[in-house]
């Protein structure tokens, strides 16, 4: 049993079973034993790898996207470049290196990072220290920080925010919860779903659902999006959201735990495996539009990176590389863009307010 499994079991014993969202929140962000608060999960020695860790080209394309938007906003100075969950800081470091020749961009930017993990904060400080970043743990403070319009970046951030799960049974929706068996081990169980929660299932899926089908609802993600939008409407600017997920709502259990680059059972090692679900982009887009913002996409990550010029960038890098590196660049390009790899499952969505600019890539 992990330390966190003990803590969860004790909470369940005293307070009763918890919904999947509460479980995800504790497992990922418990102040001492949470998955993100207690380790560096990213890279070969960790549990998963992200796009910026695959190739510098990813962050470079995001940098080009941000600089293009800034220029079309009229080069506001100052403005705030804000990233949610920067991981090792690689995306931002690559984005900033790629934009150092955009006149005035670096002088105008104020860098604000949202991060819960002290371990990752230290890593970010190593590669971003020269840009004087300011760290925040509280999203609202982060969205108020800095000056001028906001350019927000979030890569593989939303997938880590909690979801609740509804499961169809006997013609009704039940909520999936985490409970205890007779040996104090964590198990899933079901309870009658609150009517307000069940009412959130889109009518066509409600009709289609068969016994055992699962629908995921992410109030925490929509809440985050609503905060993003309030800030964008107040300050102007845009957000770029990249994550794995689907463009239309669907049925299915996407809750997954990953440890040492392999899937493991969700309840076996809480706090020692990454816990995510696929992002329902339609729900995020709806939350954004209800908050008075415009949305673009989602488009596949491959199409987005291609529109930003990743093939040209790969050619330029190959031209100054040796044979081994040329192969690596080709492999990374494939991984990031091809439909069978990250190019299709990963999607990119932009949100804007305060102007009619269509962000690059859409
Ligand atoms: N964007 C990075 C890292 C993705 S992993 C990359 O692409 O490599 C998720 C990141 O979000 C980590 O930095 C993690 O510590 C952070 N994170 C997760 N939940 C968070 C929360 N609720 N608030 C702030 N940061 C969070």
Structural notes for this entry:
The structure is a single chain. The chain is α/β, with parallel strands linked by helices and 362 residues long. The protein is 41% helix and 24% strand. The strands form three sheets. Strands 2, 3, 4, 5, 10, 14, 15 and 16 form an eight-stranded mixed β-sheet that branches. The model has no long low-confidence stretch (mean pLDDT 96). S-adenosyl-L-homocysteine (SAH) binds at residues 28-29, 36, 42, 50, 52-53, 85-87, 91, 114-117, 120, 155-157, 160.
Low-confidence stretches: none
The number of E-state strands comes to 16
- The radius of gyration computed from the alpha-carbon positions, rounded to a whole number of angstroms, is 21 Å
The helix content is 40-55%
> Given the helix and strand composition, which structural class is it?
alpha/beta
For the biggest sheet, the summary is: 8 strands, mixed
Q: Average the pLDDT over all residues and give the rounded result.
A: 96
Compact description:
The chain is built from 16 helices and 16 strands. The mean pLDDT is 96. Helices cover 41% and strands 24% of the residues.
Topology:
Elements (H helix, E strand, L loop, with lengths): L2 H13 L2 E2 H10 L21 H4 L1 H17 L6 E6 L5 H9 L6 H4 E6 L3 H11 L5 E3 L2 H6 L5 E6 L8 E6 L2 E9 L5 E7 L2 H4 L4 H6 L5 E4 L1 H17 L1 E10 L9 E4 L2 E3 L9 E3 L2 E2 H10 L3 E7 H8 L1 H10 L3 H15 L4 H4 E8 L9
Parallel strand pairs: 2-3, 2-5, 3-4, 5-10, 10-14
Antiparallel strand pairs: 1-7, 6-7, 6-9, 7-8, 10-16, 11-12, 11-13, 15-16
Helix pairs in contact: 4-5, 11-12, 14-15
The structure holds S-adenosyl-L-homocysteine.
């Amino acid at each position: 049993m992990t330390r966190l499994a003990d803590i969860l079991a004790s909470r369940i014993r005293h307070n009763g079973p918890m919904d999947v969202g509460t479980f995800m929140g504790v497992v990922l962000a418990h102040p001492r034993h949470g998955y993100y608060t207690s380790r560096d999960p990213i890279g070969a020695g960790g549990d998963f790898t992200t796009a910026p860790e695959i190739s510098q080209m990813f962050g470079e394309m995001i940098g080009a996207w941000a600089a293009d938007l800034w220029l079309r906003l009229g080069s506001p100075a100052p403005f705030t470049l804000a990233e949610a969950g920067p991981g090792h800081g690689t995306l931002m470091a690559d984005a900033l290196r790629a934009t150092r020749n955009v006149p005035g961009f670096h002088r105008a930017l104020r860098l604000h990072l949202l991060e819960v993990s002290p371990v990752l904060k230290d890593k970010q400080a190593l590669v971003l220290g020269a840009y004087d970043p300011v760290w925040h743990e509280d999203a609202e403070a982060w969205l108020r920080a800095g000056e001028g319009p906001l350019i927000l970046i979030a890569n593989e951030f939303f997938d880590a925010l909690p979801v609740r799960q509804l499961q169809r049974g006997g013609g009704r929706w039940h909520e999936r919860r985490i409970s205890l068996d007779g040996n104090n081990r964590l198990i899933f169980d079901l309870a009658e779903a609150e009517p307000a929660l069940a009412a959130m299932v889109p009518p066509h899926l409600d009709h289609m659902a068969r016994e055992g089908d699962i629908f995921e609802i992410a109030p925490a993600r929509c809440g985050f999006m609503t905060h993003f939008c309030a800030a964008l409407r107040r300050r102007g600017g845009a957000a770029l959201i990249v994550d794995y997920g689907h463009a239309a709502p669907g049925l299915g259990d996407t809750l997954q735990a990953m440890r040492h680059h392999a899937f493991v059972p969700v309840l076996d090692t809480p706090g020692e495996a990454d816990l995510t679900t696929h992002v329902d982009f339609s729900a995020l887009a709806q939350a954004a539009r209800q908050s008075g913002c415009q949305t673009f996409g989602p488009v596949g990550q491959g199409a987005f990176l291609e529109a930003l010029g990743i093939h040209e960038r790969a050619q330029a890098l190959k031209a100054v590389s040796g044979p081994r590196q040329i192969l690596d660049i080709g492999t990374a390009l494939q991984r990031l863009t091809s439909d069978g790899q990250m190019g299709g499952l990963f999607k990119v969505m932009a949100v804007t307010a305060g102007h009619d600019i269509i962000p690059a890539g859409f």
